[in-house]
Automatic annotation (TrEMBL):
Top-level lineage group: Bacteria
EC nos: 3.2.2.4
GO cellular component: cytosol
A biological process from GO: cytokinin biosynthetic process
Natural source organism: Cupriavidus taiwanensis
UniProt-recorded name of the protein: AMP nucleosidase
SUPFAM superfamilies membership: MCP/YpsA-like
Compositional bias of kind Low complexity: 36-46
Chain residue ranges for the region called Disordered: 1-46
Length: 311
């Protein structure tokens, strides 16, 4: 037994003195780092032996190190070998930001003076033979004749019914159309038709320009729009507006889930249930909106310091 072993010294290989943890004890570099290092040295040596200039040897060493650690082969804007490709990718990202800004600007220019306005949400799949389609026409006509512009998603189904009813009335019929992989054709009942590439700019436009929301039966898209409005009002990111859900038979299950599941678990507050109201007749929708504002003395102005945080 040697003196070193007798003294209890470790016989483990010495670690790289340049790699240390915060306690000062040396640690072994990760295996992939060692393999990268070895591959780079071997490639550089081979290149030098073949008589390649230093810059070529360096390139071959870098390529060998990357192959030794496949994670570094993932392309990124900072590490793309092809500068043209990187430039094109940056240009696409910049152009996308410009299209987003353009959609917000266009929506503001077209819709800022169209007030008061209500948005009507609902399924694109409910056709003319659906009672909800016919009720939507009645509701939209009532609001249009009462002086409200009516905003819909501009597509078929409930959206078409909303524009159809408003188009026959006294006020503007507005459609916020969305480009989809399976092309959504705009309905022919729009006085003002806008086209969006991005769902979120379209949704912001709905919220920013509406004084009430009427939610007809619908699927995932309608639930998404409903949840967003409720969340924005609940969190104070949007001014308080009436949310009227049409059809108690259709919405009862969702409201029961709110009341008997979310509320007992403390996931919503009791007063959150007051953010929405369910009605079953077209004339009740208009009355509910009037009642909402009458009870609050009209739409209270937003304090200047807070206005910048509101949609």
């Amino acid at each position: 037994m040697t003196g070193a072993a007798a003294g209890g010294a470790s016989t483990a290989p010495l670690a790289d003195p340049d790699v240390a943890d915060i306690s000062g004890d040396t640690v072994q570099p990760p295996p992939e780092a060692a393999s990268e290092h070895a591959a780079a040295i071997a490639a550089a040596a081979d290149a030098a032996a073949a008589g390649h200039p230093p810059e070529v040897a360096a390139e071959k060493a870098a390529a060998a190190a990357a192959r030794a650690n496949p994670r570094k082969m993932i392309p990124s804007l900072r590490a793309l070998a092809d500068e043209d490709r990187a430039t094109a990718k940056k240009a696409r990202a910049s152009w996308q930001m410009f299209t987003i800004m353009a959609e917000f600007i266009e929506a503001t220019e077209y819709l800022s003076e169209i007030r008061p306005a209500v948005s009507i949400y609902g399924s694109a799949r409910l056709r003319e033979d659906s009672p909800y389609y016919q009720r939507t026409i009645e509701i939209a006509r009532l609001f249009s004749d009462a002086g409200f512009a009516v905003i819909s998603g501009g597509g078929p189904g409930i959206m078409e019914a909303a524009n159809k009813g408003a188009h026959a009335g006294k006020s503007a019929s507005v459609g916020l159309n969305i480009e989809l992989p399976h092309e959504q054709q705009g309905n022919p009942y729009q006085d003002i038709a806008m086209r969006f590439r991005h769902f979120f700019t379209r949704k912001v436009t709905f919220v920013k320009n509406s004084d009430a929301f009427i939610v007809m039966p619908g699927g995932f898209g309608t639930l998404d729009e409903l949840a967003e409005v409720l969340t924005l009002v609940q969190t104070g990111k949007s001014r308080s507006v009436p949310v009227i859900m049409f059809g108690s038979r259709f919405w009862k299950g969702l409201l029961d889930w709110f009341r008997f599941t979310l509320l007992p678990m403390g996931l919503i507050a009791e007063h959150d249930l007051d953010l929405m109201k369910i009605v079953d007749e077209p004339h009740e929708v208009l009355e509910a909106v009037y009642d909402y504002y009458e009870q609050r003395g009209g739409d209270k102005p937003i304090p200047p310091k807070e206005e910048m945080f509101y949609l």
